[in-house]
Batch of 2 targets.
Target 1
Amino acid sequence: MAHAHWPLPLWIAHRGAGKLAPENTLAAFRAGAALGWRAFECDVKLSADGVPFLLHDATLERTTDGRGTAGDRPWSELSRLDAGGWHSRGYAGEPPPTLEAVARYVQRNGFALNVEIKPTPGLEQGTGEAIGRACAALWGEAAAAADAPLLFSSFRPESLLGAQVTAPQVPRALLLDSLWPGWLDVARRLDCVAAVARHDLIDAALVAQLQAAGMRLLSYTVNEADVARRLLSLGVCGLISDAVDGFAPARATA
């Protein structure tokens, strides 16, 4: 994979619109879009019957009115959950969306999407394969285009390997919550175009290390202007943020 192309703009809204709307719902995407954001990150996992849908946690309790492990439930059950009422009364009844619904939304609006692969524990590679297959079908020939605004990321190398098997044309990024031994070798083996690191891990040496490897560096979760300015001065090329009402992404200002 040629690493010259980069599919995302600088500013990326975390889980849709961060805290302003219920995360990982279409309502969150619309809230972010209304504030000028044109790129979005979301978490995708599989239902028990293999439907890719948006949810961050392995379990349902925090962001829905369901109980138990999300990946143990069929989509017919998951689709009836309330994924908005936990946030505020105005979003009560907001359903969890499928990856297909989100793909149609971003495609019709010309938005970019960072799909974080969030497997149910024990299903890492299979989840990556299924999500890669789904994105290849949803984006069609556009998924192979040099300017396709789509990126896979995951903390789990096995999931990125799965996506590489079924959608090798879609760029990949390794997520890092620590600089664990061998992470760069793993990213190289997966032909990653980037790493996405927790913002307090990032310094000039890390940026230089990735640049020498021909990779870019993104950061999460950047919610303060001074943090954004520091990262931009170091050469970070992507800022994933909850503070969609605090930054001006269209003007690329912090």
Target 2
Amino acid sequence: MNKRIFLLSLCIVFYPVCAQAAEMYTMETVERVISGDTFKLKSGKKIRLIGVDAPENEPNQKAREDSLRTGQTLDELLKKGKAATEWVKSRLEGKRIFLKYDKKRKGDRGEELVYAYLYDEALFYGGIVERQLFEDVQFEWWQLPERGKYVFLNATIIKGGYATPEKIPPNVKYADWFERAFWEAKEASEGLWNVDYFEVPCTEEGRKIGICAGCLVRCCKPSMPIFDLVVDGKCQKEPVIGSGGYCSHCGNNICESEHLEDSCNCPRDCK
């Protein structure tokens, strides 16, 4: 049995799977990087990476909202957005990427929501190689342009320190991957996190702060960063990604709820 007949036989047996494969997977070329998480393809499509939130590079409404949420000035935010855009642009424009969709395919502005993979890990920053790709496609392996390793761009841009994760149902399949990549980037001072801690001016008590790529926070003593640690009514170890916070004096025997202090993040003051 030659290869063509063999593949045809598989498609007859697994017709629903084959139909889904054609719908869920595609190979495209990046024409222009619009921002650290949004690209235009040569086919004319505009795509947005699922679970990735890079800083804005234009003074739009989201940039202003992010400025208020994170405590950064608009100029600081846009500078970081441009740095993230250039980092991704220099590595991705003109490259062919493999796209994979999740449950929701369209964003609020009509852009396509995708997981993107770049073949040949040497072409991109150190990278998280998503070997799970082959398990995901299962019988549709002939849809892949190459059988080998792919850089999972969504997670890699976060791990490179140029974006933070965002969790928006129903597209949450790799949310844990993205959160882990975020903390690895932060701990390693990658990308926009790579700023000398001691050269960063301290933030006064009561000032709003945020967790985001480039938001290095040093609260003036005796204050400390206070972030929301409550998820579904339970305390968790790490702050809620993307949540705003405050510099607050945890340990002064005052439960300052206006600074987000509660029994999870400041048990010394909040019983």
